[in-house]
């Protein structure tokens, strides 16, 4: 039995990653193999547990922040006279919970009503704002994990962008729903809806509208939340997949709730809470799965290796550090429009940003480069004062964890090590980053 498992795994691996299907079925085989590869990668990531763990963490954060976020959105919409449209939005989000969804919606709205009337003091208001922002921050961290982004936005950038999203997001959604409602009531649309031919088409389209909105929201989140550049096309692929899965899951979960009378009898008053937790967990898992799909669509090289971080040899890290400094220095000389960032460096060097970031952080901590608020990388000091030996020292000599005492090398080993260091120093000499740039121009 133990020998059968590796054999089946090898056959599955060969079926998914080889060109066998494409050779046998041509274009249909290519489509099938592509679908199988993405499906295999997503299932592998879910089974490994990180996506599920982060979904569980987001459920906990959601429970803490649902009232602050709802109160914040309610207050914004009230300023536009649209606060009455908020309750149907919340109900639609919880609709798969059945009658419990309406009950939870009413409870949340009652809580928000209690928050509105100036009851909160300064400390409570600050706590509410902090809880709402921490929710968005937690989402960003999860998306950064999916996209192999090791460095999150600066605090000032996070605070301003999160506030803008929380202010504008609810307004845009309500306005979009209002426009859809007004279009449905227009004379032209009513004429087509009364038509025997176009009527069923418009009815089907109107039923698809909530799912199209979910797809649009998913796509926006996939573009906006990760602290890296996400192509619209990849985000749209993830948004369509996530929206479709969410719509399908809503129907399945609603059916489950209807036929879960036995569960409600067993758990009594806790049944509503348990069902809500499960629904929140599934929502976050779908959102993160769509983000993972968008990442793989933009970075297909990761489909097979998954989250295994590429390991670099010391020789590769030395060349990488020198190349980073060369590109950053060249961009600085060419002007502000040519500034480099971790993502642009990763693209030019064809190295994932998660592999590049530790070297960039080491160079930054040693004062050789500086990271601006706009995430641009600049030389840390005058380039004629940045010696190449200092750059190499960052990856050759620095970074020990200090978890050991000074080792006692054998005399022969100490001698060889000294010769290697002397050879490197003799090769580099007193060259600086400015000298290197002059030599490459």
> Structural class of the helices, strands and pairings?
mainly alpha
Question: What is the CA–CA distance across the termini?
Answer: 63 Å
Helix content, binned percent: over 70%
Task: Summarize the helix and strand pattern as letters.
Answer: HHHHHHHHHHHHHHHHHEEHHH
DSSP, total strands: 2
Unreliable residue runs: none
Radius of gyration: 28 Å
Count of DSSP helices? 20
Q: What is the overall pLDDT average? A: 76
Broad shape: globular
Strand order of the biggest β-sheet: 1-2
Largest sheet data: 2 strands, antiparallel
Our estimate of the beta-strand percent is under 5%
Write a structural description.
- By secondary structure, the chain is an all-alpha fold.
- Helix content is 75%, strand content 1%.
- It has helices at residues 4-17, 20-25, 27-48, 50-79, 86-93, 99-116, 122-146, 155-184, 187-194, 198-224, 232-258, 261-267, 271-298, 302-305, 314-334, 342-349, 353-365, 388-396, 411-428, 433-440, and strands at residues 369-371, 377-379.
- It is globular.
- 23% of the residues are buried.
């Amino acid at each position: 039995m133990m020998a059968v498992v590796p054999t089946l795994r090898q056959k599955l691996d060969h079926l998914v990653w080889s060109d066998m299907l494409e050779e046998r079925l041509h274009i249909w085989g290519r489509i099938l193999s592509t679908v199988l590869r993405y499906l295999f990668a997503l299932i592998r990531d879910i089974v490994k547990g990180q996506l599920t763990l982060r979904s569980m963490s987001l459920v906990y954060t959601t429970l803490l922040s649902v009232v602050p976020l709802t109160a914040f959105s309610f207050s914004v919409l009230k300023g536009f006279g649209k606060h009455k449209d908020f309750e149907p939005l919340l109900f639609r989000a919880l609709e798969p919970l059945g009658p419990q969804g309406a009950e939870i919606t009413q409870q949340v709205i009652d809580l928000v009503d209690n928050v509105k009337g100036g009851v909160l003091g300064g400390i409570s208001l600050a706590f509410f704002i902090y809880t709402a922002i921490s929710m968005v921050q937690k989402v960003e961290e999860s998306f950064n994990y999916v996209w192999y982004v090791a460095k999150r936005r600066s605090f000032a950038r996070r605070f301003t962008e999160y506030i803008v999203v929380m202010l504008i997001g609810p307004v845009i959604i309500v306005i979009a729903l209002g426009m859809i409602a007004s279009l449905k009531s227009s004379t032209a649309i009513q004429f087509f809806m009364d038509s025997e031919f176009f009527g069923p088409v418009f009815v089907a389209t109107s039923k698809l509208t909530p799912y199209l909105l979910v797809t649009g929201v998913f796509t926006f989140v996939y573009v906006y939340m990760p602290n890296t550049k996400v192509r619209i096309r990849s985000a749209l692929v993830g948004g369509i997949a996530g929206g479709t899965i969410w719509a399908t899951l809503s129907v399945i979960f609603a059916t489950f709730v209807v036929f879960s009378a036995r569960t409600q009898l067993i758990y009594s008053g806790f049944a509503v809470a348990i069902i809500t937790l499960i629904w929140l967990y599934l929502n976050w898992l779908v959102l993160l799965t769509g983000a993972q799909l968008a990442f793989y669509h933009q970075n297909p090289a990761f489909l097979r290796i998954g989250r295994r971080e590429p390991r670099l040899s010391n020789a590769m890290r030395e060349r990488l550090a020198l190349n980073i400094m060369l590109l950053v220095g060249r961009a600085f000389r060419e002007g502000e429009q040519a500034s480099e960032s971790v993502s642009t460096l990763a693209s030019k060097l064809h190295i994932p940003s998660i592999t590049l970031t530790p070297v960039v952080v080491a160079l930054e901590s040693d004062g050789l480069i500086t990271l601006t608020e706009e995430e641009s990388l600049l030389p840390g000091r005058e380039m004629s004062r940045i010696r190449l030996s200092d750059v190499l020292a960052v990856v050759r000599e620095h970074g020990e964890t200090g978890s050991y005492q000074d080792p006692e090398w054998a005399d022969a080993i100490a001698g060889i090590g000294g010769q290697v260091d002397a050879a490197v120093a003799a090769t580099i000499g007193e060259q600086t980053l400015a000298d290197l740039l002059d030599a490459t121009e």
